[in-house]
Amino acid sequence: MFFVFPSGGLAAIGQKRLTHQAAILVLTFVVITAQFAFGEKSPLQIGQSQNPASVVRSLVISGNDSFSEAQIRSLMRTDVWGTYDETVLKQDFDAIVRFYHEAGFPFARVPEEKLAVKQFGDGVYIRFEIDEGIIGKITLAGNTKTRDAVILRELLFDVGDVYTEADKEESEQILRRKRYIGDPGIEAHWDAFTQTVSVHVTVKDLWTLLGALEPNFNSQGGYFLARVRESNLSGTGHATQVSYERISEIGERTRSLFRGKYELPRLFNSHWNFDGEYTQERIGDSWRVLLERPQYSLRSRWSARFHLLEAIDTLSWFEGATRTDTFERHRRGASGRIRRYFGNRQQQTYIGLWATAARATYELVEKKASSTAALRNRDIKRFGITVGRQHVAYHKTRFLRRMGQTENFFIGSQYGLSLGHASPLYGADREESYAELALGNGWTRGQRLLGTTTIAINTNFTSRIERSIIEARTTLFYTDVFNTGDIYTLEDGFRENGPFDFHQTFVAQFKTAMQFGWHGESQVILGAATGLRGYAYREFNGEKMMLLRLESRTVFGGTVFRKIDEALAAVATFCARPFTNSPVSLGLVLSGTAFADIGYIWNGKQTFNIGEPKRSVGFGLRSSFSQVGGTGIILIECAFPLDSPASTGLSPTLFYGLERAF
Q: What pLDDT is stored for residue 483 in this prediction?
């Protein structure tokens, strides 16, 4: 049989065959090169250098919900197309478990019963499962009043979730912020019978019904006639307050008012919080409503806040420690913001939108002397954007701002920039822009030296900068100066260390406030109201001020003070019999103080003069009930003003009251 081809046909067919063979060779080369690049062996190599029965043909990983398969495989030397080695595989499992433990999964493991290794003639097939540490049970202890569900809903984990140290630490911080819970603790252990993690949560219910226990007054004035506050209503975590208040201040007209307040956390079992307040007084009624979804956890991705307000109050203008003008201020406002967070628990970036509408009018009701007061009615409507970044961590400590309870001291950094604009197009009284920069930082050096700094700068501008405010504050704490250790805890009270014991802390704080372009519209005050002890509430006024406060605090402990606390607890238990049959623990903690303050105040027409300080020195007694929720620091201080214009001698000023400590 003969075949006849057209001219050139054989050459064409031969060329096609050569092209096809070349393509196969190139493809084979690419596959082999790619396998080399990823550390794998090719089937050609396996056939030449290995026994096919010992080659890993399949590697299946399951249970790794928190990390990708690529991350797990990168920790292993065993891989597909490699040689199976039982010893190497066990070393791989050790590396995986070590990786999980370092990442905060203390109960992660690779169980042997979930390992399957099948050997066939064509190779080895491996399948294993990672147990990241599943929570099988959560138990509670110590909550005699607070309902179990109220505590469990605050935890960042539930039965069936993976247990992590980060969730545990942040859950403790969330519980610690509750005014009705003291010193929460979370412990976890491995239950070999159920092959799960058992979590045990311990709390201490604080006494939360306050009335006469919290008189809020001081030697410069004050308020309190009748007040009842419950911070944990029927163990639900709700807070309510009803009060009749009589507010007075030296040189001011006494005000009497009724006030009702209700706080509803976790609205409809969500992360939304409701806070409402209604005030009735002679000059008019006021109310405010706050609906907020905070960044509940550092792993939360968004937050929101909406606020409504209608209020009427009085505003006084002071010059030379004398009230010159009294205004009746009417305010009406609404504001809202939404933020979106990106990142992880430690490093976060956020962006947000905000809007505010605020109307304020002033009516002069009394004028005692000529002054520079020139308050302006405003109708502000702004829209803006906020961007920021935060690095968040906390350090557990005691005896800084509270007395006895464990505190979360912020360490890290936060900074944010807000830009806004107001225009008559959407109802503002004028067109202007607004900018605000806020910076915050906290740090520790070892366990005893701690510091925090905040700076806020805001400005209003049109074609030029018109009004600006700069505020800054930095505080240093040197705690446990003599390294005496923890002398008091909520669980055990005062430690056994003889009749007398002590704990020393040194505090230094510098703060400043400066206003530019606000002449006649706002003023800066220096006096007892801003922390300059020994002087009148509003002794000095201007546009700029700075203040340095130094204080040494000695917390007293030992058997003597334990007996004093036990005696007061017995009295409190007897007085509380109509309300509860349970014993009442107060946790009285006493501290002696010695302090020195120095401040400066000036304005735009007067340059700063370092030779004109406002100084004071003194001593005092601080106390608090560490096992009563929401109490502040009860102060009795004797201060000696060294530069008072009203006194030529060294005359002491006595201050007593309930104040928040710096």
A: 86
d(CA 622, CA 657): 10
**Angstrom distance (rounded) from CA 229 to CA 259:** 11
Query: What is the CATH topology of the domain spanning 23-129?
Result: Ubiquitin-like (UB roll) (3.10.20)
Q: What are phi and psi of 62, to 5 degrees?
A: -135, 165
Q: How far apart are CA 415 and CA 413, in angstroms?
A: 7
CB 422 within 8 A of CB 380: yes
Cα distances (angstroms) measured from residue 648 to each of 53, 193, 291: 102, 79, 52
pLDDT of 489-543, one tens digit each?
888 888 888 888 999 999 999 999 999 988 888 889 999 888 999 988 888 888 9
């975590």: which residue's tokens?
237
- What is the rounded distance in angstroms from the CA atom of residue 377 to the CA atom of residue 361? 5
Instruction: Give CA–CA dist 348/387, Å, rounded.
Output: 11
Nearest to 539 by CA among 216, 223, 220: 220
Residue found under tokens 């007398």: 500
Distance from C-alpha of 491 to C-alpha of 188, rounded to nearest angstrom: 19
Which pLDDT tens digit goes with each residue over 606-637?
A: 678 888 899 999 999 999 888 887 777 888 99
Contacts of 180 (CB under 8 A, 6+ apart): 145, 146, 205, 206, 208, 231, 232, 237, 629
In the numeric block, the tokens 């307000």 are attached to 309
Fold of domain 135-205: Ubiquitin-like (UB roll) (3.10.20)
pLDDT tens for 43-57 read 444 444 557 778 999
- The tokens of 584 are what? 């009442």
Q: Are 61 and 76 in contact (CB under 8 A)?
A: no
> Percent of the chain having pLDDT more than 70?
87
Please tell me whether residue 458 adopts helix, strand or coil conformation.
strand
Could you say which DSSP state residue 131 is in? B
- Report yes or no: 351 and 331 within 8 Å, Cβ to Cβ: no
Q: How far is CA 657 from the centre of its chain?
A: 27
Task: From 44, 171, 19, 192, select the one nearest 111 (Cα to Cα).
Answer: 192
CA–CA separation, 61 and 70 (whole Å) = 10
Tokens of 350: 């956020």
Whole-number Cα distances in Å, 117 to 28, 57, 127, 131, 389: 31, 11, 7, 18, 48
3-state class (DSSP) for residue 323? strand
One DSSP character per residue, 178-229 reads -TTEEEEEEEEEEETTTTEEEEEEEEEEPB-EESTT---EETTEEE-SEEEE
Q: What tokens were used for 375? A: 């308050």
Domain map (residue ranges) of the chain: 23-129, 135-205, 383-662
Q: What is the pTM of this model?
A: 0.81
The three state secondary structure string of 631-647 is: CCEEEEEEEEECCCCCC
Q: Which residues of 190-209 are buried (b: 16+ CB within 10 A; e: fewer)?
A: eeeeeebbbbebebbbbbbb
DSSP state of 154: T
Over the stretch 290-335, which tens digit does the pLDDT of each residue have? 999 999 888 899 999 999 999 998 888 888 778 899 999 999 999 9
The amino acid at residue 595 is F
Does 171 score more than 50 pLDDT?
yes
Same fold, 23-129 and 135-205: yes
The residues near 29 (Cβ < 8 Å, ≥ 6 apart) are none
